[in-house]
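The freezer alarm interrupted the setup, so I double-checked each line after restarting. Inputs confirmed:
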Amino acid sequence: PLVLGIETSCDETGIGIVRGTELLANTVASSMEEHVRFGGVIPEIAARAHLEAFLPTLREALETAGIELHEVDAIAVTSGPGLAGALMVGLSAAKGLALAADKPLYGVNHLVAHVGVGLLDPHENPSGGPAQEPSGHRAGNPGAEPDAEPDAEPEAGPRGMRRLPENTGALLVSGGHTEILRVGSLTSDVELLGSTIDDAAGEAFDKTARLLGLGYPGGPAIDAAAVAGDPHAFRFPRGLTMPKFEGSAQNPGKHRHNWSFSGLKTAVARAVEQFEASGRPVPVADIAASFQEAVVDVITAKAVRASLEHGITTLMLGGGVAANQRLRELLAQRCAAAGLELRIPPVSLCTDNGAMVAALGAQLVAAGVTPSSLQIPADSSQPVQQISV
Ligand code: ATP
Ligand code: MG
Ligand code: FE
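Predicted 3D structure, all chains:
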């Protein structure tokens, strides 16, 4: 099926177009630049930016794919989770397009869409130009990247569609989420194995970068600063790793597969304060490297253990924090040691985009799932088990 996907859950306005598992267009405009001076995404500004970016982004995606709206078989849109006002812009636009073009509408789960993107064929840049990351407020068509992991053989699925391998897990790490999922079927069986109980991983990067005076967004800044630092200079806490939280495989504790990053953030703040109080220069690179090591260590250790204990054999990585070099390195090492196959999509498909929504929409169409009503609301806390609404 030819499916148009719309993503507006946070600061990216994404329109993607797929034919089955073939990626035809992935146009993304971001309002990140407008949030930089506030040090975080401001919901009202994001919603307004979606409104302004929507039509140009749609036009560019249709042009890149070389199709017209009336040719699509369905329209998929993120219905949640995300910022309510931002979601509403995409959802209203999707309903309008579905009504005008008389096409079925699928309201889909943003987190499951992050997993669905893993089914797309390894691709060339659809625009034919050089590979490019979404940046600024400009729309861009990110394509293949040199570090993209080659995809495995296509698995047969409904109507010849590629399907996820059995026992797939997904580790989603972004500014809003840190979750490990078991995905039995993308269209009917998704289970939450663990998640953060406070800050998301990307949020921890952003807050720590602010403490270190590294600016916003903090992930790329810490990633870069850490290169010159010693990851063992400070021993920062790994949250929820004490036996009372973790229990054993036979008798798991409540937080065995959960994360917590707020204690880590406090420990970094204390370290910075101690240097400032004593008038010594803050060792920014060492703190950045040690913080990053703590986050990456506990994320990868818990993700791999949760996977092994739930019979997962293939693990997919998604979310903006997937760009982190140390995370990719340590996760690859630990997956290899545990006999887990690791799949990491190109960064342009790990961060929020419309192609992932279209990819999940195509799976829903192919599986014969009933389309959504035109009355569906935005659900800012849509649970992961609710794949479509
Ligand atoms: P959502 O949580 O809804 O997916 P989001 O916009 O918060 O949306 P993304 O756009 O996927 O999340 O990712 C942004 C986050 O990723 C930010 O918190 C940013 O700091 C973090 N990030 C980006 N690059 C890196 C990196 N190299 N290392 C660590 N974190 C990074
Ligand atoms: Mg974002
Ligand atoms: Fe996301």
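Quick read of the result. Residues 10-12, 175, 320, 352 surround magnesium ion (ligand 2) (CB under 6 Å).
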